[in-house]
Amino acid sequence: MDAYPHTLKDQAEAALNDPHFDFIATYHAVADLRRLARKHPGVLDTQTIGALERLLHSNAFQKVRQAYFLYREAASVLTDMAIVPGGNGLGSTVLASLRHMLLKASGSAHRGVAEALGSLPVRISGPRLNIVGRPSPPTASWTDLLSFSGLTAAGQPRYIGRSLVVETSAKRHLLVVKLAKRGDTAAGLEREIQWMETIAKPAYAVDCRFHVPAPVRVKNRRVFRIKHLPLPPPETVKRHPDGLAIAFVAHRDYFIYPNQNRISGEAAREIIGRNAFLLGCLAAKGIIHEAPIPLFHNRTQRLRREDQGRYQWFRSGRLDQWLSACAFPNLGLSGLRDFEHLETFCGDSRILYRHIGSHFFSLLLVAGSHFRCRDSARMGLDKNGQPVDARDLFDRQLLKTMILEIFEGYYTGFTGSSKYAALPVDVHRLTDRMIEEMGVDRHMTELLRRTDQNALTDDAFFAFLKERGYRDDQLKRCNRGETDILITSGPHLGDFNRQISLPELIECVAAMSAVCIAGRFTAELKKAA
Questions:
Q1: pLDDT at 305
Q2: How far apart are CA 212 and CA 126, in angstroms?
Q3: How far is residue 329's CA from residue 355's CA, in Å, rounded to a whole number?
Q4: pLDDT < 50: residue spans in the chain
Q5: Helices of type H across 285-327
Q6: Using an 8 Å Cβ cutoff, are 143 and 228 in contact?
Q7: Model pTM greater than 0.90?
Q8: Is residue 227 helix, strand or coil?
Q9: How far is CA 52 from CA 31, 46, 117, 353, 442, in A?
Q10: Is the torsion defined by CA of 54, 60, 63, 65 positive or negative?
């Protein structure tokens, strides 16, 4: 090998060690090391690791807007040293260094390290569902469904959301008829049933409690038209014009959630930790649950935004109506729920890293909501207009245990390892900050912008305001599209159009996700060796 790569290495490392180099010069030095890592990996050594560590620990560029790109590139030099063949056998050393920096780094450096680790390549490819065109769905009555399921109703049917539910002669089971909403498609409904059939196969069995609902077919078809309902659906349920529906037999615990006020703290801890394990197991098999809870940055703008107002945790924006989002999570006492939100994953690790982050983010929010649901009346603003302080509802030690078990459960499920990695998070500080921000409803308002008002009809506009507490005399003074309107819709995590008020949660999610990807990468290397 000629001397040039060694010279370039020495020059780049000298630049990183020189405090007088500006941001641009430092970025070029890191870029030089990145090229060497890919073309001449044998040149890089422990001195390179040390120089990059000092840069990532330094606060010299934290205030530079583009600092994140510098830190991600620096961390990527280290991940390249672990990936590219022909190095100096320093793979385990650089991975240990990056894990350590997840605990020590902050701000843009932390994000850069997490995303670099989260981009380590892992071999995950999910199952392909065979959704084909079907002729017109058959028709069935309520009585037909009971007959097809082989069960007898043992109680009065009732609605839970848009699902018509009845206890059955099999005491541990419920018959559930899920009514299609306006805008749903037969293909989408069929996919939900196919996921139930797929996950029930032995190849997807897990070593913990998980009751997968058993589909009820009508004339051997998954989707049907329902007639002669025993009671009409709630007014809030806008049914599909063709009366489409699916049906399944679920465990009686299917609608029991970890944040119901009758659920004890220990039971909630077990439910959340077990569902973390289940989410990790499915993700490892290439099956992603895209909505453990519905997360939005801004619900009121979802009709006119390309992202439909959905929350992207890695952007650290304000989280809309966090307690409402946690009200009916898709993780319960019987296991994961609502398979309509399952998707096959087959892509690069960076996308998977973000999916895993959404899982962790959802699980941690549900954990926090458990404590608030112990007294759901204590929410919003008090009679003096001051934020309600419900921090006394939180059990600090229990919340800390929940955080640890969420990580441990997901990590073991995703990596297949019986030994979980150390949590690269200051769990004591995170616990305190979660209680501080989730326990006090400081952020209650948002603006209904003129643009969003004009997207509504007059009737929808006034109904929107009435749902949010506007009195008739106040509604008379409101004219759609005239001016932005301040509404009370919280609690939110952060002020409207601002960053999240709990950035520690974002850093935690990033670190947890990165360590899971790194753990899977390491496990695959050992298996291949």
A1: 54
A2: 18
A3: 17
A4: 1
A5: 322-325
A6: yes
A7: yes
A8: strand
A9: 12, 10, 15, 23, 40
A10: negative
462-478 tens-digit pLDDT: 988 888 888 888 888 88
pLDDT digits (tens, 9 = 90+) for 428-463: 999 999 999 999 999 999 988 888 888 888 888 898
Query: CA–CA separation, 64 vs 24, rounded Å?
Result: 11
User: DSSP letter string over 347-409?
Assistant: S-HHHHHHHHHHHHHHHHHHHHHHHHGGGTTS-SB-TTSPBPB-GGG--HHHHHHHHHHHHHH
Whole-angstrom distance, CA of residue 189 vs CA of residue 191: 5
φ and ψ at 166, to 5 degrees? -145, 140
CA distance 229 to 146: 12
- 383-391 — which CB contacts under 8 Å span 24+ positions? 387/440, 387/441, 387/442, 387/444, 388/440, 388/441, 389/439, 389/440, 390/439, 390/440, 390/441, 391/435, 391/436, 391/439, 391/440
Q: Are 38 and 75 in contact (CB under 8 A)?
A: no
Q: Mention every residue, 6+ apart, whose C-beta is less than 8 A from residue 231.
A: 157, 159, 164
Cα separation, 71 vs 27, whole angstroms: 9
Side chain identity, residue 517: I
d(CA 207, CA 448): 48
Nearest to 276 by CA among 174, 426, 415, 397: 415
CB contact at 8 A, 317 and 256:
no
**172, 160 Cβ separation under 8 angstroms:** no
Residue 405's nearest CA partner among 351, 353, 366 is 366
Say which amino acid occupies 129: L
Give the pLDDT confidence score for residue 95 in this predicted structure. 94
The one-character DSSP state at 152 is: -
- For the record, the structure tokens of 70 come out as 């510098």
The answer to whether 9 touches 43, Cβ cutoff 8 Å, is yes
Residue appearing with tokens 């962790």? 360
Neighbours of 150 (CB within 10 A): 11
